[in-house]
Amino acid sequence: MGKPFSTKRILFQILVGSIVHFSAVAQYTDVINSNRPGLSVSAYAVGKNVVQAEMGLFYEQSDHTLLNTQSDLWGTNFSLRYGLLFEQLELNYEGTFQDQDIIYNNFDLKAKRRDFSRNRLGLKFLVYDPYKNPERNKPNLYSWRANHKFQFKNLLPAISIYAGANFVLGDNPYYPGEPTISPRAMIATQSRLTPRMVMITNTAYDRIGTDDPELSYLISFSHAFRNPKWSAFMEHQGIQSDRYSDLLLRGGVAYLINERVQVDLGLGASFKNTPSRVFVSAGGSYRFDFHKDKLIPIDDQNPIGSGGPIKKNSMKKEKRKNKKSRGNGAEDIDLGPSKKQLRKLKKAQKKNNRDDSEIDF
C-alpha cells in the first residue's frame, strides 16, 4: 500500500490546480477590477454576465494666460461595463457631464457651458492573453525571489481592440458643428510587470471623419501595497488635435471595501498654461456579479488517482446496464460506477500513490 499524501504534495496540487483554473477563466476574477480612478482602460473584460458601474465626481480649476480667462468646472464621469456573450467581450458606455463657469477678464464677461464632454459607446475584445498558456505561468517552487522579481517575459502584454462611437446630442457647446455620430478606435495593452505592478497602455484615434480628429495615448502604472486592499496609480496622457492638445499627469489611490465595492481618490494637472489645469476627483465602483463558471462534463474530468478520464463508451454501457436492471419506465438516474469500476479505480489509485511516494520534494 502506498504512502499517504505529504503536506508538500497537497500544497503542490492546490497550486497547480489554481493555475489551471486561472488560465481557464482568465477574464473573470472573484474581486472587482475597476478602471478608476484614472482614464486608462484595461485590456481585460469584466467577465461574462458581470455588470460593473464606475462613477465619480470631480472639480477642475483652469486658467488660460493668452486669452486671460478663468474657469471653474464641476462634473461627473461614469462608466457602465457589461460582459457580453463570452468572457473576452465587453460592452462599455462612458460619459462625462460637466458644468463650467468661465470669466473673460479682458471683456469683464461671464459665460456658462453645460453638456457632455464625453459620451460614447463601444465594444472591447481581448485578442491575445499571454496568461492563457499554463506553461508560461508555472511558478518556481524553489525560489520566492524568482516568482516576484521583474522578468522581461512579463513585458509581453495582453492585447485588446476597441471599436465604438461618440455621440453629440443637440447643440453641444464643447463640440460645435460636429456630426451626431463619429467613430472611435483604440488598442489597449496590459502587462503584469511584477505580482504587484501592472502597466496599461491605450492608443486611440477619436472623432474619426470630423474636422478635428483626435489622437491620444495613455500610459498607466498601478501598484498594490502589502495590504492588498490598498493600491496606487500614476498615469500620463497625451492628446493631439487641432481643437485641443495637452500633456496631463494623474495620480491617486484606491481602497477595496469588499469584493464588490472599491472607492478611490485622484488628482492631476497639465504641463502647460494654455490652459493650465488642476483637478481632483473622488468616486467608487460597484459590481453586480451574475457570472457562472463553465462546468466541465463529468466524462471529461480526471479524478485524482484514477490514472485517466473514464471513457465515455464505458459510462454509456454502464448507464444502459443500470436502466435495464431497474426495469422499463424507470427514470434515467446515473447510479455512478459499478463495483467492477470501483475496484479498477482503487487499483489505479494505489498504483499512483506508490509512484507519487517516490517524488523528492
What descriptors fit this protein?
361 residues; alpha+beta; Porin; 12-stranded antiparallel barrel; 16% helix; disordered C terminus
Q: What's the Cα radius of gyration?
A: 28 Å
β-strand number: 12
Q: What is the name of the CATH topology of the largest domain?
A: Porin
CATH architecture of the largest domain: Beta Barrel
Q: What structural category characterises the helix and strand content?
A: alpha+beta
Determine the fraction of residues in helical runs and give it as a percent range.
Answer: 10-25%
DSSP helical segment count: 4
The major beta sheet can be summarized as: 12 strands, antiparallel, barrel
Number of domains: 2
CATH fourth-tier homologous superfamily of the largest domain: monomeric porin ompg
Pfam families: Phenol_MetA_deg
Description:
Residues 299-361 are annotated as: Disordered. Pfam families: Phenol_MetA_deg. Residues 352-361 have a biased composition (Basic and acidic residues). InterPro entries: FApF. The chain is 16% helix and 44% strand. With 361 residues, the chain is α+β, with helices and mostly antiparallel strands. It has 2 domains: 25-289, monomeric porin ompg (Porin, Beta Barrel), CATH 2.40.160.40; 295-356, no CATH class. Strands 1-2-3-4-5-6-7-8-9-10-11-12 form a 12-stranded antiparallel beta barrel. Strand 3 (89-104) and strand 4 (109-128) form a beta hairpin. The longest helix is centred in the first third of the chain and has 18 residues, at 7-24. The model is unreliable at 1-26, 298-312, 321-336 and 357-361 (pLDDT under 50).
